[in-house]
Automatic annotation (TrEMBL):
This is AB hydrolase-1 domain-containing protein. GO terms for cellular component: chloroplast. PANTHER family: ALPHA/BETA-HYDROLASES SUPERFAMILY PROTEIN, ALPHA_BETA-HYDROLASES SUPERFAMILY PROTEIN. InterPro entries: AB_hydrolase_1, AB_hydrolase_fold. It holds the Pfam family Abhydrolase_6. The lineage of its organism: Eukaryota, Viridiplantae, Streptophyta, Embryophyta, Tracheophyta. Residues 103-353 form the AB hydrolase-1 domain.
Length: 376
């Protein structure tokens, strides 16, 4: 954990909340219902509430009256979305702007393409910029499926093949960062560069031992169903709690170090997806089944297969994923450029001017290399 975090948290809890692709199971029976404190965001209950917020809960008005960051162009908010692509019979939302070398932006857990509001217009001045909503999030379909980390990899890989159709750079924040990494490994012939902004994912535990035991009749047919019922009830209660405006505002302001960007635009882009009748069920599946059996999906297992240049654009004040993780990635994968920013978990939206400059500087070298390879 970064030294910027002042809260003492046990390693097991820290692993669960920092990594949306954690191998640990979300156990409602162990949720801490103590009074709120400055460390509330760094416990199980805080994570559940953050997840609910991210999945798009109605919390505030939709006036969108907030002013954009001074001197930075902002993507217009469209309640009906921008463009849609059909993938495996599912409706997928994406934004596309600009011309030139293509870049694909992938949002974090529960966010959407609109989270790149200050990056798309700036990057589109020199590049063709795509921002895609992952299945189950944003304006994409809230499919009732068994979610697995690889479902989004397949979605991004097919998007590159069917929509982009050119050598591409992937850029991802948080869960979108891990998705970008596995997609880059899955389609190395098309992905020529990868940028991770406070990426999710964890390094494998080489000391961990996997033990499998056969379920007894009592475990399989009595205890397990009862546990699932209890989980659903508790998550429904948490979902209801998270709808309270004061709770939501507190959660959002803990996500951002610079809270000035927690505005109507951001809230509305999170709020609207909750209108989908399947949003609650998607949230339940993401918070339970998605977190099971993910031990094979580790950062080192994919970084060892990565072949393109890597940019780490890291918010050093992130209370979830500190700079130590970025340093470890760079140590593991030497073909890495590390840029540290004074921001939290979402540097692209907190300090868009700095994030955009770092991306443009790095992209210029990647685009030149890709162009030279095409002309050879």
């Amino acid at each position: 954990m970064s030294s910027s975090s002042s809260c003492g948290v046990s390693p097991s809890v820290r692993t669960e909340i920092l990594n949306p692709i954690s191998s640990r199971f979300f156990a409602p029976s162990r949720i801490n219902f103590q009074p709120r404190s400055k460390c509330e965001m760094i416990n199980r209950r805080g994570f559940a509430l953050k997840g609910i917020v991210a999945c798009g809960v109605s919390v505030m008005g939709s006036s969108l009256t907030s002013e954009p960051v001074q001197g930075v162009e902002r993507l217009p908010f469209k309640p009906d979305g921008y463009n849609f692509w059909t993938w495996r019979g599912r409706k997928i939302h994406y934004v596309v702007q600009g011309e030139g070398f293509p870049i694909v932006l992938i949002h974090g857990f529960g966010a959407s393409a609109f989270h790149w509001r200050y990056n798309i217009p700036e990057l589109a001045k020199n590049y063709k910029v795509y921002a895609i909503d992952l299945l189950g999030f944003g304006w994409s379909e809230k499919a009732i499926i068994e979610y697995d980390a690889m479902i989004w990899r397949d979605q991004v890989v097919d998007f590159l093949k069917e929509v982009v159709k050119e050598p591409t750079v992937l850029v991802g924040n948080s869960l979108g960062g891990f998705t970008a990494l596995v997609a880059a490994v899955g389609l190395p012939e098309q992905v020529v560069g990868l940028a991770l902004l406070n990426s999710a994912g964890q390094f494998g535990d080489t000391k961990a031992k996997t033990t499998e035991s056969e379920e007894t009749f009592l475990q399989k047919f009595v205890l397990k169903p009862l546990k699932e019922v209890f989980q659903r009830v508790v998550l429904q209660v948490l979902f209801w709690q998270a709808k309270q405006p004061t709770r939501i505002e507190s959660v959002l302001k803990n996500v951002y170090i610079n809270t000035s960007n927690v505005d109507d635009y951001l809230v509305e882009s999170i709020k609207m997806p909750a209108d989908d009748p399947n949003a609650g069920e998607v949230y339940y599946r993401l918070m339970t089944r998605f977190m099971l059996n993910q031990t094979e999906y580790t950062l080192d297992s994919f970084l060892s297969k990565l072949t393109c240049p890597l940019l780490l654009l890291w918010g050093d004040l992130d209370p979830w994923v500190g700079p130590a993780k970025a340093n470890r990635i760079k140590e593991f994968y030497p073909n890495t450029t590390l840029v540290n920013l004074k921001a939290g978990h979402c540097p692209h939206d907190e300090v868009p001017e700095l994030a955009n400059k770092a991306l443009v500087d790095w992209l210029s070298t990647i685009a030149k290399k890709a162009s030279s390879l095409q002309t050879v």
